[in-house]
Amino acid sequence: MLYCTLYDYDQTEEKTLRQTPTIPPAEIARQLDLCDQVRALLDRRPGEKRAYVDTYGCQQNEADSERLRGYLARMGFGFSDTPEGADLVLVNTCAVREHAEHRVFGNVGALSHTKRRHPDQVICVCGCMARQDHVADRLRRSFPYVDLVFGPQLLWKFPELLLRKLTTGKRVFATDDVPGAVAEGIPVVRQNAIKAWVSVMYGCNNFCTYCIVPYVRGRERSRKPEDILAEIKELAEAGYKDITLLGQNVNSYGKDLGLDIDFAWLLEQAAAIPGDFLLRFMTSHPKDASDRLFDVMAQCEKVAPCLHLPFQSGSSRVLKAMNRKYTRESYLDRVAALRERAPDIVLTSDVIVGFPGETQADFEETMSLIEEVRYDALFTFQFSPRRGTPAESFDDPMPPAQKSANFQRLLARQNEISAEKHRAYVGRTVRCLVDGVGTDGRLTARTPGNRLIHLEGDETLVGTWQEAKITDSSTWALFGTVESMTF
């Protein structure tokens, strides 16, 4: 086992950290004062004030919504499970997939009915979609009942923007292309007492040709290491059992700080914090996945034995067109290096089928890579053009029917592999974290490798580590019983 030691941060290095744009603490304090002003305005109205927060997309959006809830709680809002009757509705959007964008517009359209029944309801749309000019223009023209629109870089100014809406009565659109910055000190209301998200950095510098993220979330900017470690320590002391470190590419962490640290170092420091918790992280870009990172994963017991390592295509030619900055061969080298250190690692990935210009031969290379790596699970997508990205204008000769057939073939084969992998668990006893109750009344739990288990058991086990005997499996889950209850 690697004996990790906590880093003693040298404050004399502070000047180097300022290379990363930061919001001054005094400005965050001003936003908190503005929260109090919003609360004073709302207190003039009778009854308890309720907010509904609807989040789409990735875990980073979930983490952003937790900070927005923190501001809302400071303003005096309680929280509702439905937009009906809520005094404020906040829709935090995702721009990565076309399907998510259509869902957002459909659900925002449905809010016209709640607004008609509750004319004082304030409707806000934020997140990645809101940062796109064509989306903001559509919201302005076609959704006149939407009161406030802002992008992710201005999340820290939410109190100021909302107060402007409440005091002027005018719609507020804050969608300018402003540089992203790191804002510490925003209050957080977490939705879960067992699992927590911790952002270690924001933005992306990779500019994959299909991806809108660098355009809507800005360039990479890392949080100070002592702020991240303090947050993890606080979570551990509060009893959180499963902590996920977030970034568009966590393996780029620290490059903008001017310090001799990287993500492997940060992960090692986090693992040295006392407490009974497991560390996960996402997402890792293959071009930056280092041997040092794999060493830390293999040797630090608190680091979960799983990795999400998106490959996107098995064809080096397509990877070059995607601007992924690695080849099929170098990706497979990273997988081999990881499995040499951690043979039982649970490996998941993303793959895009039907990227513009992909040939049938390219697709066959993707299929052969899946056979060679044998992932535990895949997140599979048919290419969806994003407005404003280079790939939007790429030639795309493959017929849609062929793309669909390829997608279904890939999905069917991966489901077979996933089912085979899950069958290998049957008869084993595994440690797992009981994290909730499913719709069928059974407990839900996760192995350290993040495999879902449906368990027979009592709700009092939620939030505890248990030993589970795996009795059955399916393509997507394991089934078992608690072998010996521990609290």
Short description:
By secondary structure, the chain is α/β, with parallel strands linked by helices. It has 14 helices and 19 strands.
Q: Please indicate the count of domains.
A: 4
CATH superfamily of the largest domain: Methylthiotransferase, N-terminal domain
| Shape descriptor | globular
**CATH top level label of the largest domain:** Alpha Beta
- If you average the pLDDT, what whole number results? 93
CATH fold-level label of the largest domain: Rossmann fold
Return the CATH architecture of the largest domain: 3-Layer(aba) Sandwich
**Backbone structural class:** alpha/beta
Bin the helical content: 25-40%
Percent of sequence in beta strands: 15-25%
Largest sheet data: 6 strands, parallel
Main β-sheet, spatial strand arrangement: 2-1-3-4-5-6
Uncertain runs are 1-18
What separation lies between the terminal Cα atoms? Answer: 26 Å
Number of strands: 19
Q: Give the C-alpha Rg.
A: 23 Å
Q: How many DSSP helices? A: 14
